[in-house]
Structures are given as structure tokens and as C-alpha cells.
Specification:
Number of strands: 10
Distance between the termini: 13 Å
Order of helices and strands: HEEEHEHHEEEHEHEE
Strand order of the largest sheet: 3-4-6-5
Structural class: alpha+beta
Radius of gyration: 16 Å
Helix content: 25-40%
Length: 191
């Protein structure tokens, strides 16, 4: 089938970051990078893709590098609550417009904190992004969840993905401890 605009945008961003992708008859093949983006200095545009905006911002902060991140005018109107949390952990964010919104420059040496707290009322995608990105670290990360959606469907899907990627984690209901990935699979199919 044809790709949605959001999927095209995400793939364009991955390409700019140095990730090889290949369109196949039955989907898209994405070549992993072992938790480190080949291009550590890039300018990406998430356009109106909320998923790319949330997940890539978190992933780039964890992976480290120097990135210019822009978006559509529509996305510039939406606050990105995750930016304040990242800034509090030492990620350098220079706003090129309004504080807490696109566009911005993100400069990171990785996430050093061993404990992060996320309010699931803003977006469970931020929590999912942190859970996935935390597995790239060489030490555990404790994610404390607040808000009403600490057991939301996105988080359940994310826990299934962690299992599929052999990422050990401890689920303490409102806290999840994510350990470094052990022996991730060579292939993973996304529905």
C-alpha cells in the first residue's frame, strides 16, 4: 500500500540521520544502527508527524549529537513537554522560536540521569520513547510514571517491544526499570 505522510516523514528523518531504509513489496526494511545514529550532526524536519516529533526527539537526546529539528507550522503550535525534562537532564536546547516548541537545536552527550519522571497525562508516547531509548544505555534507567495513563495501551505495546528486543525491564506499576539490551534480535516485524 501507499505510505502515510507521517510514515514518509519518519523515513525521511531516518535517512538524514544515516539510517538505510528500503521499500519492499510487503513493507519497508529498516537497517538498524545498534543504538547510535551514523549522522550525529543533522537537520531534520518532522513536518506534522507527532510520532516522529516525540520519538525522534527523545531518541536523539539519548543517542547524543547536534541536531536542528524543525516542523510544520501546525506542529509549531503544539507544546513539546518533553523538552523541559530533557533540559533538566543537561540536554542543551536552543529555541529558534517559542520556548518549548519547534523549531529548536538539540545538543546532547546522552542522558546521564538514572531516574526520570514523566507525566502520562501529556503523552504516553514520551514514556514509550524513553523506555525504548533507555535500552541503548550501558546502565539501567528508572522511569517514574505519573498521571492517569500509567498502564495505557501504548505502554503495554512498548513493554511487548522491549521483550521482543530482549531488553530486560522490571515493571513496578508506576515505575519501570529498563536495563541495557541483551542480544537484540537480528529481525523484528512491525504490524
Amino acid at each position: 500500500g501507499s505510505l502515510s505522510e507521517d510514515t514518509k516523514t519518519f523515513l525521511d528523518c531516518l535517512t538524514v540521520l544515516g539510517i538505510k531504509t528500503e521499500q519492499k513489496n510487503d513493507g519497508i526494511l529498516i537497517y538498524g544502527c545498534g543504538g547510535s545514529f551514523p549522522n550525529k550532526n543533522a537537520a531534520i524536519n518532522v513536518n506534522s508527524a507527532g510520532t516522529a516529533a516525540r520519538f525522534l526527539t527523545v531518541a536523539l537526546a539519548f543517542a547524543g549529537g547536534d541536531y536542528m529539528i524543525d516542523s510544520s507550522e501546525q506542529m509549531k503550535k503544539r507544546p513539546m513537554e518533553i523538552l523541559e525534562l530533557l533540559e533538566n537532564d543537561g540536554v542543551n536546547i536552543t529555541y529558534l522560536g517559542e520556548k518549548g516548541r519547534f523549531p529548536f537545536r538539540l545538543q546532547s552527550d546522552g542522558i546521564r540521569a538514572d531516574v526520570l519522571t514523566i507525566d502520562t497525562d501529556h503523552s504516553t508516547q514520551y514514556a514509550s520513547g524513553i523506555m525504548l531509548a533507555a535500552s541503548m544505555r550501558n546502565k539501567p534507567l528508572e522511569l517514574r510514571l505519573t498521571g492517569k495513563r500509567i498502564n495505557g495501551s501504548y505502554l503495554q505495546i512498548t513493554k511487548s517491544m522491549l521483550q521482543a528486543f530482549h531488553v530486560p525491564y522490571q515493571d513496578l506499576n508506576d515505575r519501570i526499570i529498563i536495563f541495557p539490551a541483551e542480544n537484540p534480535p537480528t529481525q523484528y516485524a512491525v504490524e
